[in-house]
Amino acid sequence: MAHPHLELTARPRRNRRTPAIRDMVRETELSPAHLVLPLFVHRGPVEPIDSMPGVNRWSLDGLVGEVGRAAELGVRAVVLFEAAPEEIKTPTGDEAWNPDGLIPQTIGAIKAHHPDTVVMTDVALDPYNSDGHDGIVAPDGTIVNDETVEVLCRQALTHADAGADIVAPSDMMDGRVGAIRETLDHHGHTEVGICAYTAKYASAFFGPFRGALDSAPRSGDKKTYQMDPANSREALREMELDIAEGADMVMVKPAGPYLDVVRLFADASVVPVAAYQVSGEYLMVKAAAASGWLDEQAIITETLGGIRRAGADVILTYFAVQAARLLS
Ligand code: PBG
Prior knowledge:
The protein is an alpha/beta fold. 38% of the residues lie in helices and 16% in strands. It is built from eleven helices and twelve strands. It has an eight-stranded parallel β-barrel with strand order 1-4-5-8-9-10-11-12, surrounded by nine helices. Strands 6-7 form a two-stranded antiparallel sheet. Bound molecules: ligand PBG. Ligand PBG binds at residues 122, 124, 126, 134, 170-171, 206, 209-210, 278-279.
């Protein structure tokens, strides 16, 4: 008896039949070279962060060790955040540009031990601002733009002087990319890049991070500077401005809930696109896996693969080391 068959000219399953065929036709590659590991540093011994299981607040030495372990697995880029003690926070966040501060020290230590690792730094005032905002808060509660940009320029210059490869302004003030570019160039740092947090949304997914740094706004929210989650056309406007002002990379943050914006950027941007899988995205996976409901390893590669497929060249993720281990 003849085999019964449908008369189909196209059977897409043929391209999925064996592992070798699937590998051959795969459109998106996930490799550690695209991952950036966010690291938290503080003045004290290494300690786990309650709001982010599996993530530590490192001592300076501990952090340098972690940078080495990441590099061995192929993760050769990190972005630094300081958990600053309450005593050093001020309304103008002056610790942000202290050349003897913990971030400049950490940059120096990483560069001394792992010169090939790309050191990115966060440029924003929230870790050092007693109001918990990314900018300076005026008496009437507004976040003042131009005065903040001046301080951000000093902060970026301090990081560049200490040896940072790329500064990443995450504050969402207007005009900061151009101002930082001018400041860096004026001081001879023409080689230091700017990765702009271009479409940074006023997102509830940052909650665990603010727990890690104890940096939540003391009053109000970040909606006058971070973007409305409902908007994507506005993200293109931010993108055009950042690129015109000299950004070397443009970022979308968070990543997973904003994959449409990642795709918009990927289609329209002439510079590489980064996406940040933020603390809340990390925590959702960790919590679901801890309860036994999801397969953590499979979810890690699927979420990161999805961000790549949406068009991100670079992904900042707390899973960077774990993912690199899975990929090796
Ligand atoms: C602050 C900053 C934030 C994150 C990175 N830089 C938090 C915020 O804007 O409130 C969030 C990262 C994360 O949630 O993983 N400038």
